[in-house]
Amino acid sequence: MLAGIQQIDEVEWEVPVGYVPGMRVPGRFFLSDDLAETLEPDAVHQLANVACLPGIERYSLAMPDIHSGYGFPIGGVAAFDAESGVISPGGVGYDINCGVRLIATPLRADDITQPRALIEELFRTVPTGVGAESSLRLSHHDLAAMMTEGVRWAVEAGYGVENDISHCEESGRLDAADTAPVSKKAFQRGMPQAGTLGSGNHFLEIQEVDAVFDPETAEAFGLSPGQICFMVHCGSRGLGHQVCTDHLRVLESAHKRYGISIPDRQLACAPLSSPEGEAYFGAMAAAANYAWVNRQVITHQVRQVLQRMFGIAYEEMPLVYDVAHNVAKMEEHSSERGRRRFCVHRKGATRAFGPGLPEVPAAYRSVGQPVIIPGSMGSHSYVLHGTATAMERTFGSTCHGAGRVMSRTKAKKATPGSEVRKHLLEQGIVVRATSDAAIAEEAPEAYKESDKVVDVVRRAGLSLPVVRLRPLGVIKG
Ligand code: 5GP
Ligand code: MN
Ligand code: MN
């Protein structure tokens, strides 16, 4: 372990105040010994820097998928007091409300006799890749409504069913959304990209439930051994990116007006109660709602393909759940000063609310919310459930994936995409992407081992495994 880091527990580590000058609270991260070599000193430095921001509550936190990001580490969680705290785009990321969802089906693994044909049909139907164009014809008014209403807009436009709404975190809508601080350029970028998968790390995957750890909870989530599911990973495309870019520019100078000194330019921020902070919050929430619609429209496209190819009724393909993993939200949590409101930033981290909370949909309330953790195109993904421990220790948060260990550039040099593709096919995984270069950047070797990362959050009690998923086919942007 790095010098100056103290072990708190089997898988929990403390970055003490003083690790970098100006820390207001300690840092805490979760990692096992066998993942210790994946820890980047830069990411720990970023975690410590976040602890310098005004209004931060208790700890600057990071999950075992920690790696360095823009300002905040990816895998980072930080809660800022609603009255005295700040909001920072670096704590959300460029892809606002990037997230994952899982769609269940009545299909079993042996129903997928022609995985290639299914993947190709999905690839034709779901617009994929950098320049992919939306099949939606939207007016400016539609786009604004989408950003204000979130998933409900999509369901009312015919892209889903009522039940999809309650099976999204926040019911697929942040009510802080305000389109006024969303620039014309952001609108322009968002218009042709609504309902598209995007590129890079974003994916649509056919998966089989290949292990069940908690049969009772699996049943509550509608999951059983051998079942086929579809996982969607995407976010707010160019719209979210533009919102982040626009507001970073403003916040880079705004913090000085409020007497906030930041240890890193990338931690540009403003008080939650300032006009600049409110403007970013409103625009960020609007982009988050757009991302939820995006995943909803893709879900509709997947359901249509399955309807056509397998004759399955639309209602037989329920949305298990949808989680955001790049977002800042107002939430109530316990603190030494009692129950208080915080702006919780999760940047490459997933909400993991435990049992009994009103935020968890009724169908899952007795067990805790579903937590969806993707692995890589060649490794396991998981469904876990949130816990009371997460509520106590991490503001109800857990990891969001395996996390990168290799940069895109390095991964591209390591193994050619054609070889990665061949190797995956030998394991029975069909990959379809816009280019072999895209496959190389996303090789399973570029990520930590998902089994090990999930084991850390299990041991820490931040979320508990329900089922494991094995990839059969992957579409990469
Ligand atoms: P991020 O949003 O940080 O780019 O990615 C989230 C996580 O998705 C990554 O940490 C990685 O573990 C996982 N991931 C990336 N590509 C794939 C894929 O093709 N399939 C699956 N199942 N997971 C992936
Ligand atoms: Mn993303
Ligand atoms: Mn993501």
From TrEMBL:
It is an enzyme of class 6 (ligase). Keywords: GTP-binding, Ligase, Manganese, Metal-binding, Nucleotide-binding. It catalyses: a 3'-end 2',3'-cyclophospho-ribonucleotide-RNA + a 5'-end dephospho-ribonucleoside-RNA + GTP + H2O = a ribonucleotidyl-ribonucleotide-RNA + GMP + diphosphate + H(+); a 3'-end 3'-phospho-ribonucleotide-RNA + a 5'-end dephospho-ribonucleoside-RNA + GTP = a ribonucleotidyl-ribonucleotide-RNA + GMP + diphosphate. The active site is at residue 400. Binds 2 manganese ions per subunit. Monomer. Essential for tRNA splicing and maturation. Acts by directly joining spliced tRNA halves to mature-sized tRNAs. Joins RNA with 2',3'-cyclic-phosphate or 3'-phosphate ends to RNA with 5'-hydroxy ends. GMP binds at residues 201-205, 325-326, 374-377, 381, 400-403, 476. This is tRNA-splicing ligase RtcB. GO terms for molecular function: GTP binding; metal ion binding; RNA ligase (ATP) activity; RNA ligase (GTP) activity. One of its GO terms (biological process) is tRNA splicing, via endonucleolytic cleavage and ligation. The lineage of its organism: Archaea, Methanobacteriati, Methanobacteriota, Stenosarchaea group, Methanomicrobia. InterPro entries: RtcB, RtcB-like_sf. Belongs to the RtcB family. It comes from Methanofollis fontis. Mn(2+) 2 binds at residues 233, 325. Its EC number is 6.5.1.-. Its cofactor is Mn(2+). Mn(2+) 1 binds at residues 95, 202.
